[in-house]
Amino acid sequence: MKSRTIALGCDHAGFSLKEAVVKGLTLAGYIVMDFGTHGSESVDYPDFAHPTAHTVEQGQAKLGILMCGSGNGVAMSANKHKGVRAALCWSKEIAALARQHNNANVICVPVRFLEEAEAMEMIMTFVKTEFEGGRHARRVGKISC
């Protein structure tokens, strides 16, 4: 697994934030695999959520970031992938807990409900936070069907 590689995807609602996230992550020394979209025209979120989640599922990226209007559509799509634990987050505290307690490996961002600065802080918290393991590992082990 590539420890500094992050897969990223979004629909049209997340496009402008995605551009800022790619820049911020790159400046912070991460390698970003950008699965699009690459414009603000209306598109279907599963077309970008699935390749992002697949890349995390296959271990080609340590983490994934997905963005859409509510965050729900990309979360539902990503969570269809075995081994993907996609968390819908709306604050840096929720993002930290998703990593620490749930070992989430994909963050789903509701772009229509966050300012860019909030979203960036939340995403950076997510990528920098590690899983605590311990009692949480037992629980995470029970998630998959």
By CATH, the architecture is named 3-Layer(aba) Sandwich
Number of strands: 5
Q: What is the helix/strand order?
A: EHEHEHEHEHH
| End-to-end distance | 23 Å
Radius of gyration: 14 Å
CATH class call:
Alpha Beta
Task: Give the helix proportion (percent range).
Answer: 40-55%
| Overall tally of structural domains | 1
- Main β-sheet, spatial strand arrangement: 2-1-3-5-4
Strand percentage: 15-25%
Low-confidence stretches: none
- The CATH homologous superfamily name equals Sugar-phosphate isomerase, RpiB/LacA/LacB
Describe the structure.
The protein is an alpha/beta fold and 145 residues long. The chain has a single domain (5-140), classed as Sugar-phosphate isomerase, RpiB/LacA/LacB (Ribose 5-phosphate Isomerase B, Chain: A, 3-Layer(aba) Sandwich). 43% of the residues lie in helices and 17% in strands. It has 6 helices and 5 strands, in the order βαβαβαβαβαα. The chain has a 5-stranded parallel β-sheet with strand order 2-1-3-5-4, with helices on both faces. The model has no long low-confidence stretch (mean pLDDT 95).
Short descriptors:
145 residues, 5 strands
Task: Summarize the helices and strands and which ones pair or pack.
Layout: E1 5-10, H1 15-27, E2 31-34, H2 46-57, E3 63-68, H3 72-78, E4 86-88, H4 92-102, E5 106-110, H5 116-128, H6 135-140
Parallel strand pairs: 1-2, 1-3, 3-5, 4-5
Helix pairs in contact: 1-5, 2-3, 4-5
